[in-house]
């Protein structure tokens, strides 16, 4: 038995990673026996079960139908944001810190095989969609490149000033032979 539900573009935001995330969310709400029967294929959520399990199929179909009602508002997790906006994790961290990419909170999960829980930011799907529609990532990258060039120019100027001040201070110091009493100090053997 097969049942298919289309995933709207507003739910997946054009990302296969987001589609897999939706699949995981749906699977988490199903009984253990039905979890492996759900897949996302070509923008559709598919439930495929043997005909002998008709009661389980009906229950799973109803659960999936109810779960898909608010799926457009499901928070976007970091790896989905990176795929949707085609950004790196370094850019994501920087833009969160700068306030360009606004988090709606954090989520903490305990992953299998790990001793500690992992906490990460989650994002509003409408905010991510607005960023994608406005093409802000390319604008932000250009701004970051300009800022980095300015920082490099400023650092080069500071390094040049430091080198110049060190060169001037070396010229002002008298050489060792010009110091009074140097020969007596050296004869005492304190420099060995």
Helix and strand content put the structural class at: alpha+beta
Strand order in the largest sheet: 1-3-2
Number of helices: 9
Give the distance, in angstroms, between the N- and C-terminal Cα atoms: 91 Å
Order of helices and strands: EHHHEEHHHEEHHH
Q: How many individual β-strands?
A: 5
Q: How much β-strand is present in the residues? A: 5-15%
Number of domains: 2
The largest sheet, given as strand count, sense and whether it forms a barrel, is: 3 strands, antiparallel
Produce a short descriptive summary.
Residues 150-192 are annotated as: Disordered. The protein has 192 residues and is α+β, with helices and mostly antiparallel strands.
Fill in the keyword field for this structure:
single chain, 192 residues, 2 domains, 3-stranded antiparallel sheet, two-stranded antiparallel ribbon, 9 helices, elongated
Report on the architecture of this protein:
The structure is a single chain. The protein is of the alpha+beta class and 192 residues long. The chain has two domains: 1-72; 75-174, no CATH class. The protein is built from nine helices and five strands; from the N terminus they run βαααββαααββααα. A three-stranded antiparallel beta sheet has the order 1-3-2. A hairpin with a 2-residue loop joins strand 2 (38-41) and strand 3. Helix 2 runs antiparallel to helix 5 (78-85). Residues 168-178 have a biased composition (Basic and acidic residues). Residues 180-192 have a biased composition (Acidic residues).
């Amino acid at each position: 038995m097969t049942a298919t539900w289309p995933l709207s573009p507003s739910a997946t935001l054009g990302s296969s990673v987001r589609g897999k995330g939706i699949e995981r969310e749906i699977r988490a709400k199903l009984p253990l026996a039905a979890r492996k029967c759900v897949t996302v294929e070509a923008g559709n959520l598919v439930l495929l079960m043997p005909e002998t399990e008709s009661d389980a199929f009906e229950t799973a179909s109803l659960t999936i139908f109810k779960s898909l009602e608010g799926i457009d508002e499901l928070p976007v997790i970091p790896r989905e944001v990176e795929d949707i906006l085609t950004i790196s994790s370094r850019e994501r961290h920087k833009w969160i810190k700068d306030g360009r990419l606004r988090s709606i909170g954090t989520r903490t999960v305990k992953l299998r095989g790990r001793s500690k829980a992992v906490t990460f930011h989650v994002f509003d799907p409408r905010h991510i969609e607005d960023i994608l529609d406005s093409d802000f990532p390319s604008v932000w990258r250009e701004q970051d490149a300009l800022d980095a060039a300015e920082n490099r120019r400023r650092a080069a100027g500071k390094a040049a000033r430091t080198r110049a001040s060190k060169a001037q201070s070396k010229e002002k110091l008298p050489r060792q032979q010009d110091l009074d009493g140097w020969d007596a100090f050296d004869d005492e053997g304190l420099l060995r």
